[in-house]
Design a protein that fits this description.
Blueprint lengths: L2 E2 L12 E2 L5 E5 L4 E3 L3 E9 L5 E2 L6 E4 L5 E5 L7 E6 L3 E9 L2 E10 L4 E5 L2 E4 L4 E3 L1 E5 L5 E2 L5 E4 L5 E3 L5 E4 L3 E9 L2 E9 L4
Parallel strand pairs: 4-11, 13-21
Antiparallel strand pairs: 1-2, 3-5, 5-6, 5-9, 7-10, 8-9, 10-11, 12-15, 14-19, 15-16, 17-20, 18-19, 20-21
Length: about 200
């Protein structure tokens, strides 16, 4: 059985962590969205049949199902499990990683370059327990709307507000003021929410 020894800069862990042959590959794509003309860092992880983390004995080979949509290259100075995906034109492409006869695939969505994200309204008020959907509008450099892109929504203070779904449905929780934020592929926009006490 192979042994993986972990050595820190200031401490040495007593003993080693056992690993086994790679039987599963996971691809980590960070939401799997890349803009045309931009790059997305992707990496692969290895595990054994029982779910324990493992290491790659052989080089990881990456392929794109359609290089006219997205191209993949090894990240400079990194192990073969780290790559960079560059968006070429909008569409869905399958990214595959293989090593030692084991392979895994995931989908990358290439979207038009995002020039702006606008949230409507930019400031609003709610009462505790109420819900309200914030609308997000994405536009490309030519001012054309970009549809169907999933955004990552967050609140500056989750004690004041949270989200009921992944489409901007805000739930007011307690009186206070917080920032509502939506982001994707390095672009973001924010709105200001004030939760007022019920009369």
């Amino acid at each position: 059985m192979r042994m993986l020894c972990l050595v820190g800069l200031t401490i040495v862990l007593a003993g080693c962590l056992p690993t086994g042959p790679v039987e599963h590959i996971s691809i980590y794509t960070n939401f799997g969205i890349v803009q045309v003309g931009s790059e997305l860092e992707v990496f692969a992880g290895a595990s054994t049949r029982n779910g324990r983390s493992s290491t790659f004995d052989e080089r990881v080979v990456w392929t794109s199902s359609d290089t006219s949509l997205a191209r993949v290259r090894r990240k400079r100075g990194a192990e073969s499990r780290y790559v960079v995906v560059r968006g070429v034109r909008p569409g869905l492409v399958t990214l595959t990683a293989s090593s030692g006869g084991v392979r895994a695939s995931d989908t990358i969505r290439v979207i038009p370059a995002i020039q702006s994200i606008t949230l409507t309204p930019s400031a609003f008020q709610m009462a505790p327990g109420d819900t309200f959907r914030v609308r997000a509008e994405l536009r490309d450099p030519q001012g054309r709307p970009i549809e169907g892109v999933r955004l990552l929504w967050s609140a500056g203070d989750y004690g004041v507000a949270a989200f009921n779904d992944a489409n901007g449905l805000v739930l007011a929780r307690a009186p206070g003021t917080t920032t509502i934020r939506a982001e994707v592929a390095g672009r973001s926009a924010s709105a200001r929410l004030t939760v007022l006490p019920r009369p």
